[in-house]
Amino acid sequence: MDPCPFVRVTVGNLALKIPVASKPARTVVHPSSSPCFCKVKLNNLPVQTAVVPCLPPETQTLDANSHGVIAATFHLSKSDLDRVASKSIFAAKLCLKISIYTGRRGTTCGVNSGRLLGRVSVPLDLAGTESKPSVFHNGWVSVGKGAGKGAGAGITQFHLNVKAEPDPRFVFQFDGEPECSPQVFQIRGNIRQPVFTCKFSFRNTGDRTQRSRSLQSDQSSSRSWLSSFGSERERPGRERKGWSITVHDLSGSPVAAASMVTPFVASPGSDRVSRSNPGSWLILRPGDGTWQPWGRLEAWRERGGADGLGYRFELIPDSNGGMSAGGIVLAESTLSLNKGGKFVLDLGSNSGSGNRGGAPVVPNSPACSPKSSGDFGYGLWPYCLYRGFVMSARVEGEGRCSKPTVEVSVQHVSCTEDAAAYVALAAAVDLCMDACRLFSQRLRKELCQPSDLLG
């Protein structure tokens, strides 16, 4: 499989040195008591916000706690790079703009609550960054009043590191909605090559086992560990259960699966799946002649002015059948049920996946590929080698035809099963959009058991 070129632009190592006035005044910023933050913007990409630590004015070197910390990350595809590199007068030149504020983040009556200290602009030339990294700035820069006079006494200074590096990815696209058992194509430029097929089915709701012709397993042991993840709640007509999707390679061998192990049930007195009682999926991969759990996805319907799909994804440390170890949460966020969005696993940035806060719950924490997720003796961070972008899956909102597009970082794919596990996860995320529909709304026939259609 050949990857697609992507470039990752990161902004990190942020710090601020603010001079302390000899005479206290209301208008003077006191770093010890005033929090600082910045807003980072790269052309028309979404603005990202990050906290900026304040250092004493006499500090000469960067604080160890600030070194290596990524504050904002932007991802550019080949088409983005071509657009920027074009000589058209309509093509905007790439420029990173950072606005630094003191005060608390947020707005009051529609007005930003922070006070602007200054702005920094860093022009970017990304030519050649598809194959080699490039550093555009690393060090201190003067901001605010007197910034043009250099770094002297009484001048506010801002430290940042801006760099771009190759981040190649495999790109997959479903040829139809997951419940319609589509093919999955690998995309590279204008080339579309089939690599997987998906099979949507219903498990026997009286049996929690996940079956496959090619994977002969002990039904009693499979039932015990699968049911340990899902509850046995039964509410006829008020739950969605038993969905599963199996990913096969082109030879027909199953290489990954997603199985709904906890039914999606309407909370008492309502017609929605609540956060306090979410439904859940297991993402499975083959091993030792049976399915082994790799990850768990929980989903629910958020309340609020605009309904959202809340989700939580965690790795399962012990894929050898032991259930004692707790899961490692890699993402907890929200997608718009109306417009859809991107489910993202990006460990080491605050670029969220449509969540309210704009940041994953575990920033700067590494993930492990599905193939190696069983080796968690040294798999828990900070010992695991995998960091940065892991995967993303674009899904559409309720009632829209969704053909998920999945991007997976090359460093997290060492075999077909690795890529297939992320494809299965993307299918589960997409199916959660339907599983979390209001129970007053009917599902399409592909998602209904024959008994439900007859009823």
TrEMBL record:
Q: For the region Disordered, give the residue spans.
A: 207-244
Stretches with biased composition (Low complexity): 212-228
Signal sequence coordinates: none
Q: Which residues form a coiled coil?
A: none
| Pfam families per the UniProt record, alphabetical | DUF1005
Q: Where is the composition biased (Basic and acidic residues)?
A: 231-242
Q: Which domain of life is it from?
A: Eukaryota
Q: Report what the protein is called.
A: Formin-like protein 18
Q: Which organism is it from?
A: Rosa chinensis
